[in-house]
Design goal:
The protein is 32% helix and 20% strand. The chain is built from four helices and five strands, in the order αββαβββαα. Strands 1, 2, 3, 4 and 5 form a five-stranded mixed sheet that branches.
């Protein structure tokens, strides 16, 4: 599959840009806005992921496993009553390989597109368009010279996936309307039913 110009641009920007974030670690508690969220289905699609040269190889199944585990790890902390489903497409990636001269210091990067649904609202996703996110492995003592020299592929994918899960969480927090109480929710429905009963 030939990547679109927009996708190529996003991937190229991801490979060339410098990131100053650190590996994602789980905060003690989820953001308050997500306190009523409960994670439902997690769907990760990776069959059309574009590998950017220079990169280690990773199979779709490997990406699905890493990303699903990271999303369930982060959003499994929420134990609310409103069920939400997450969908993530792996658009492209670069996993820094070993054996590259230090001067090149290739960094690992992941590009994903995310979607979210609330179960009570049916099949229509909450976001009108998929949100594309560019994720970096982070800069640390292990990665400043290129993580291909200090980390194996599994560790790179785990870190990228955890950082991606955190980025998805941040994106959800930026959209409080998705988590606001709905008009005609459970309380509204109960009141309406009571009104009908009284009228009869």
């Amino acid at each position: 599959m030939i990547p679109t110009p927009a996708r190529r641009a996003a991937l190229l920007a991801g490979v060339l840009a410098l990131a100053a974030c650190t590996d994602a670690t789980l905060r003690e508690d989820p953001p308050e806005l997500l306190s009523d969220m409960r994670l439902g289905h997690v769907v990760v699609v990776a069959e059309n992921a574009q590998k950017v040269p220079i990169s280690r190889d990773a199979t779709p199944d490997e990406w699905k496993e890493a990303m699903t585990a990271a999303l369930r790890e982060r959003f499994g902390r929420t134990e609310g009553t409103r069920l939400y489903h997450l969908g993530v497409n792996i658009d492209g990636y670069a996993l820094a390989p070993p054996g590259i001269p230090v001067v090149a210091a290739p960094k690992s990067v992941l590009v994903i597109s995310a979607n979210v649904w609330e179960d009570a609202r049916g099949d229509e996703r909450l976001n009108p368009e998929a949100r594309q996110l560019t994720i970096f492995e982070g800069i640390s003592g292990e990665t400043v010279i290129g993580s291909g020299l200090t980390r194996g592929k599994a560790a790179q994918m785990r870190t990228l996936s955890r950082n991606a899960a955190r980025a998805v969480e941040n994106w959800l927090v930026e959209n409080p309307d998705w988590f606001a109480p709905q008009d005609g929710g459970e309380d509204g429905g109960a009141e309406e039913a009571a009104g009908v009963a009284k009228a009869n």
